[in-house]
Design goal:
heterodimer, A: 775 residues, alpha/beta, 5-stranded mixed sheet, globular, B: 303 residues, TIM Barrel, Alpha-Beta Plaits, two-stranded antiparallel sheet, 11 helices
Chain lengths: 775, 303
């Protein structure tokens, strides 16, 4: 375990801003002006993989640093990476998520890299196509569009890659090029695609070879015999993979990691996920065990090494994005457990082992997502409950039957639906043959309510971002207005996503990623152009319970004799001078208490939302998929949202995902789960997050039993996703006072884990409020 | 038929097995000075006043038809003698400072809440716990509730002080799965002093329950200097051994109820330095002592 502790220590060092990738990528792009875009990006990636400084850290069994001298953030100037440029001076000293910046690097970034990209980013391409959408986007209040940064948000089909190896792709590209030539190369885009595939395949092979050579060199230098032997073994492995098919467990994990780290040179660091890792690694593990080539301890070390390495990279968010996506996490999800393609339980020894690794390491990354079903072994459920109750907040649970049904409803075949994987924080997607752009946008649905009350205008800024609707007199009229406003906002977002989908295809094709998703290579079509079998664009609703609670509250206030005008005026004035009305609104039934009336409104809001979203087609030939989770946009959006009839005051956070509004759940955790079970998950093929906070003080020695019962109840009730946060409020407060002492403190925030001390202050306060108001 | 309760708490995990819903009855024949649910003691409905939330809008003064609320120096004065718990002041309170304890509900009212967490009773081996106050203080209502639960297949527990007529208790036995049974003091004279009545009836009922084959978990609050003094470990044990109880849950005193007394306009009698710490130590020692004697012991309701 010494080895792992050392590696963990290394990734918890202060992070740096790394410009090496940006520099190499930009250098290449400068030289290839005028060539086919996909070829240019292939060459740029090749330049990075063949020239970026590489390292094998002391004690590592798995080679491949995501960036030189990790941990740190990589700049992706083609996306939104250059937003940082005006904040370079404050990055090392800002309140949370500091980044060390080298002075010379800052100069290069400003003088050599930034000017080149100014008119070549995805944003520069998209803006003139939709200035209306962009001007609303820039307010940060109504929606966030993430394809501005690139695509990412996809699970990599590692089993498909591991059955082939990159030499196969290299040779197969050449064969297909020849085939095209024989036919007169009439399909120009394919011709370019396979040329790009050839370039990146070669780059991947060379990338592995560089590590092999480095390992050999280090082996010569090292005195320790045992380490020398390890390094020589690593050299042998890196000579083989990712060029060839891996044949052992160690080779397979090394293969995976070289691809994973290379993908992070091409695609920005969000939600490049590893898929059903316990399933596809199991055959290698089983074979090695049987042949005596490996034991459990060695496998543990190798996996732990992999887990640690996912923490090498952090996002380079600027201060605005910090609010919306706080926590410095990259959301590399991996999925363990669950059923096979026929719906039979597929839990295996690696499922247990990976849970063990997660429990022992308790790192921010990877996002460990456990698929569960009633068919899972009781023994595994026990182990899972133990791990969760002990405070390991890094795991989240997905209920197979419900997730599968949602995907089926979205048109996914039975087999592909059962073989779903998780992506990012809470998204679900057919594994290996889909590109679901699962976090393409997040929408503040309370804005539709605000516009519905205010004739289509923003209450604070007075911009007319909505459509003009009549001032409502009755709840029925208000709800009708809300639907219109919501449709209008979704329309804008859909347009935004599709224009950005087009922009990505034109400006930022992803030739390596296109090899990693089945069907793209066969079709000779880049993933940004819809090369995958399933193409979705996932957009999330934020604040659904705030809207549902508002409708329930308005009903009460109208009954009590108030007029709609008074309610609207009270919201505009943040309830100042409206104490009595405020009390009625605030004390009306709220979602999260298993109250039929309030829950029904929230369910209704989310159904309007998902029906509207799911009907649109996307740029890549698939359609839009509704989800409901916030990252931390519920805090960011909330900041720009006026008081709502639910009694939520101006600036306060919105409710996250399908969890209740902060502090409004008074009946305990079982009621929260019951309320969440009333949501129609079949219409949420992009996932929905439910976070349940439990106080460690309350659970005491009964924790395991209670968590287990809650998980079982959660399945019985037909919920989709749940994550437990087991915390003590006083610990969080101490952590705020003395962050240095609590760097280890991991919390789950809406789908992903983060170190508490690295969250922004408003998000920290939000979490404390959530924890401390529970029983 | 209606009964009077003051709270129904879902997701209770300290009042019996699994995940439970606890129904708190209002009214208790005993007056234990350490009681941590003072709002449960009187059967009459009561107003609780949280001065820290008071906006001094004086609406309550107007609303009270009996003139029980007057403007005091820093806060409102409530004449508890005059107050009849009608709750009109609570309705107009803007700050949420006033709260009414005690609501009259039907069996169906209670069952509709209890039913909500059925799925979690099943997944955890939990059920409903009738607590208080003293549930046997409203025997007919309790019996109806117990019958209603059993007919719906919901597991039941009664958390009782044992201070009740045996005849009343006996009638409920077919509908109770287990008892949480308080043993507040091993010495009757001290029991009378601390709780307002001796422990003879309680001990006799306890013996009868055990003899009737009921599952009984005895709960002993530990309040050092009050119900625990030198040599009492042995005294408690002799009673348990004598009756034939083998399952004990020890509840160390905590001071969290202090605010509640203030809100109810009552005096808190147990203000003593380091009491909670002492109680924790004594409780731990006592638990070890009983374990050595071969009893199954839990601390703080975790079983």
């Amino acid at each position: 375990m010494d080895r792992i502790e050392k590696l963990v220590k290394n990734v918890t060092k202060p992070a740096r801003l790394s410009i090496e990738r940006a520099k190499l990528y930009t250098d290449s792009m400068k030289q290839t002006e005028g060539e086919a875009m996909i070829i240019r990006h292939a060459k740029a990636l090749k330049n990075v993989l063949e020239n970026i400084p590489i390292q094998i850290l002391d004690g590592e069994l798995i080679a491949g640093t995501m960036l030189p001298n990790p941990p740190g953030a990589i700049v992706f100037p083609e996306g939104v990476g250059l937003r940082l440029i005006n904040e370079l001076d404050s990055l090392p000293t800002r309140e949370t998520n500091r980044l060390l910046v080298d002075e010379e690097d800052a100069r290069i970034l400003k003088e050599e890299i930034a000017p080149y990209w100014q008119k070549r980013t995805i944003e520069a391409f998209a803006y003139p196509l939709m200035p209306d959408v962009m001007s609303i986007l820039y307010t940060g209040s109504v929606f966030v569009l993430t394809e501005l940064a690139g695509i990412s948000h996809v699970a990599i089909n590692y089993p498909y890659l591991m059955r082939r190896g990159f030499r196969w792709f290299l040779e197969e590209s050449e064969r297909r090029l020849k085939e095209l030539e024989e036919n007169g190369a009439y399909e120009g885009d394919k011709y370019a695609f396979y040329q790009a595939a050839r370039i990146v395949s070669e780059a991947m092979i060379n990338y592995g070879r560089r590590y092999a050579e480095l390992a050999e060199k280090l082996a010569e230098e090292v005195d320790d015999e045992a380490r020398k032997e390890e390094l020589l073994k690593m050299a042998e492995i890196c000579r083989k993979v990712p060029a060839e098919k891996p044949e052992s467990f160690w080779e397979a994990v090394q293969f995976l990691w070289l691809v994973q780290s290379a993908l992070h040179q091409e695609n920005y660091e969000q939600a490049i996920s590893m898929g059903r890792i316990d399933q596809y690694l199991f055959p290698y593990y089983y074979k090695d065990l049987k042949e005596g080539k490996i034991d459990k301890e060695r496998a543990f070390e190798i996996l732990a090494n992999l887990w640690v390495k996912t923490n090498e990279i952090v996002p380079p968010f600027d201060s605005l994005l910090e609010q919306f996506f706080s926590g410095q996490t990259t959301n590399q999800a991996l999925t363990i457990g669950g059923c096979d393609i026929y719906g039979r339980d597929a839990t295996n020894d690696l499922t247990y082992l990976m849970l063990e690794v997660t429990d022992r390491l308790r790192l921010r990354q990877p996002n460990v997502h456990v698929r569960i079903s009633k068919r899972m072994p009781e023994d595994f459920l026990n182990r899972l409950a133990e791990v969760i109750a002990s405070g390991c907040n890094a795991v989240a649970l997905f209920h197979d039957d419900v997730a599968v049904e949602a995907l089926r409803m979205a048109g996914v075949s039975d087999e592909d639906a059962w073989n779903y994987t998780t992506v990012g924080c809470v998204e679900i997607a057919p594994f290996g043959n889909s590109f679901t752009s699962s976090d393409a946008a997040l929408i503040n649905v309370t804005k539709a309510l605000e516009y519905a009350m205010n004739e289509g205008r923003d209450m604070q800024l007075d911009y007319e971002f909505g459509v003009r609707t009549e001032k409502p007199k009755t709840l029925g009229e208000l709800i009708e207005n809300f639907r219109k406003q919501l449709s209008h906002i979704i329309g804008l977002v859909v347009k935004g996503c599709n224009v950005l989908g087009y922009a990505n295809a034109e400006v930022k094709p992803t030739p390596l990623l296109s090899l990693c998703i089945e069907d793209c290579f066969d079709a000779g079509r880049d993933v940004t152009r819809g090369g995958a079998r399933y193409n979705f664009t996932g957009i999330q609703a934020v604040g659904v319970a705030d809207v549902g609670d508002s409708f329930a509250a308005i009903e009460r206030a109208l009954e009590a004799g108030y007029s709609m005008d008074e309610i609207i005026e009270a919201c505009k004035r943040n309830f100042i001078d409206y104490e009595e009305l405020y009390r009625i609104l605030n004390e009306s039934p709220k979602y999260g208490n298993d109250d039929g009336e309030a829950d029904e409104y929230t369910r209704m809001v989310l159904e309007y939302y998902s029906d509207e979203v799911n009907r649109y087609r996307n740029f890549r030939g698939g359609h839009f998929a509704a989800g409901c989770y916030p990252m931390t946009t519920n805090v960011g959006f909330g900041f720009f949202t006026p008081a709502l009839p639910s009694g939520r005051k101006s600036g306060e956070a919105l409710n996250p995902g399908v969890s209740p509004s902060t502090g409004k759940d008074r009946e305990g955790v079982t009621a929260v789960i019951k309320s969440a079970s009333k949501i129609n998950y079949a219409k949420l093929p992009n996932g929905a997050s439910l976070t349940v906070n439990l106080s460690d003080d309350v659970l005491g020695p009964k924790g395991v039993e209670v968590v287990k019962a809650l998980i079982k109840g959660f399945m019985d009730l037909g919920c989709m996703h749940i994550q437990f946060n087991i915390l003590k409020a006083d610990v969080l407060r101490k952590a705020q006072e003395e962050p240095e002492k609590y760097r280890w403190l991991l919390v789950r925030v809406a789908g992903w884990s983060a170190y508490f001390v690295e969250l922004s202050k408003p998000v920290q306060n939000e979490i404390i409020r959530r924890i401390s108001c529970r029983i | 038929m209606k009964g009077r309760i003051f709270r129904i708490q879902r997701f209770s995990i300290h009042d019996g097995y699994g995940i439970r819903t606890t129904v708190f009855f209002k009214g208790c024949p005993l007056r234990c000075i350490w009681c941590h649910n003072p709002e449960s003691q009187k059967f009459e409905r009561e107003i609780c006043y949280k001065a820290e939330k008071c906006l001094s809008c004086y609406e309550c003064v107007e609303a009270c038809e009996r003139g029980a609320i007057t403007v005091g120096n820093d806060e409102m004065d409530i004449d508890r003698e005059r107050c009849d718990g009608c709750g009109k002041c609570v309705e107009v309170c803007r700050g949420g400072a006033l709260e009414l304890f005690g609501m009259d509900v039907t069996v169906d009212d209670v069952i509709s809440v209890v039913e909500k967490d059925r799925v979690f009773y099943e997944s955890s081996g939990g059920g409903v716990t009738f607590s208080g106050g003293e549930p046997y203080f409203q025997p007919d209502f309790l019996l109806s509730l117990l019958k209603a639960c059993k007919s719906r297949g919901i597991s039941t527990a009664v958390d009782t002080s044992g201070y009740a007529n045996w005849e009343v208790m006996e009638k409920t036995l077919p509908f109770v799965d287990f008892f949480l049974y308080d043993l507040k003091d091993c010495r009757s004279d001290r029991h009378r002093e601390m709780c307002g009545a001796g422990n003879e009836l309680i001990l006799s009922n306890l013996r009868k329950l055990v003899d009737a084959g009921m599952e009984v978990i005895v709960r002993i609050p530990v309040v050092p200097g009050y119900n625990f003094e030198e040599g009492d470990f042995e005294c408690y044990f002799r009673i348990l051994e004598n009756v034939g109880v083998d399952r004990v849950d020890i509840l160390p005193y905590h001071s969290l109820a202090r605010d509640k007394y203030r809100w109810l306009g009552r005096e808190y009698m147990l203000e003593m330095p380091k009491m909670a710490e002492k109680a924790k130590n004594t409780a731990t020692e006592f638990a070890e002592f009983l374990e050595k004697k071969g009893l199954r012991v839990t601390l703080g309701g975790y079983f």
